[in-house]
């Protein structure tokens, strides 16, 4: 049996803090998470090409804001997604307002429209 007082000292650790075995795996390196940011960017691009909607840019804005807070690696994707979705949402709302105003002005400028609607109510 060995005497604990006379046992050899453990080998010294490297001063640099690096492991002495360069082939030892330290684990699986994962790619940075960018799911929310990329989803915001994709929704912005899709809404650019497939027409003006209101729901898709709102979802893209929410995902972009969440991506900015939760995914620092995907900040560029999130910022571009937020800008595209914001611009598309703004343009979509402008188009909706223009259509509503045009319909409200145009529908009452048809000659005889008021008389036709009054006659329909009286005959019913």
Please render the helix and strand layout as text:
Elements: H1 35-49, H2 55-70, H3 75-108, H4 113-123
What radius of gyration results from the CA coordinates? 33 Å
> Helices and strands: which structural class?
mainly alpha
The counted number of beta strands is: 0
Helical residues, percent: 55-70%
Q: Tell me, what's the shape?
A: rod-shaped
Largest sheet: none
N-to-C span: 113 Å
- Provide mean pLDDT, rounded: 79
**Low-pLDDT segments, ≥5 res:** none
User: How large a portion of the residues is in β-strands, by DSSP E?
Assistant: under 5%
Helix count equals 4
Secondary-structure element pattern, one letter each: HHHH
Give a summary of the structure in a few sentences.
This protein is mostly helical.
Would you kindly provide a written description of the structure presented here, covering whatever features stand out?
The protein has about 120 residues and is mainly α. The chain has a domain at about 35-110. About 60% of the residues lie in helices and about 0% in strands. The longest helix has about 35 residues, at about 75-110. It is rod-shaped. The termini are far apart. The mean pLDDT is about 80.
């Amino acid at each position: 049996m060995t005497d604990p007082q006379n046992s050899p000292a453990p080998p010294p650790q490297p001063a640099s803090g690096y492991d002495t075995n360069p082939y030892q795996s330290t684990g699986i390196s994962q790619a940075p998470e960018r799911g929310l940011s990329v989803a915001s960017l994709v929704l912005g691009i899709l809404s650019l090409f497939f027409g003006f909607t209101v729901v898709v840019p709102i979802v893209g804005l929410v995902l972009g804001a969440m991506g900015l807070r939760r995914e620092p690696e995907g900040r560029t994707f999130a910022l571009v997604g937020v800008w595209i979705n914001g611009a598309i949402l703004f343009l979509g709302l402008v188009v909706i307002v223009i259509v509503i105003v045009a319909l409200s002005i145009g529908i009452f400028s048809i000659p005889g429209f008021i008389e036709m609607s009054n006659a329909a109510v009286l005959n019913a």
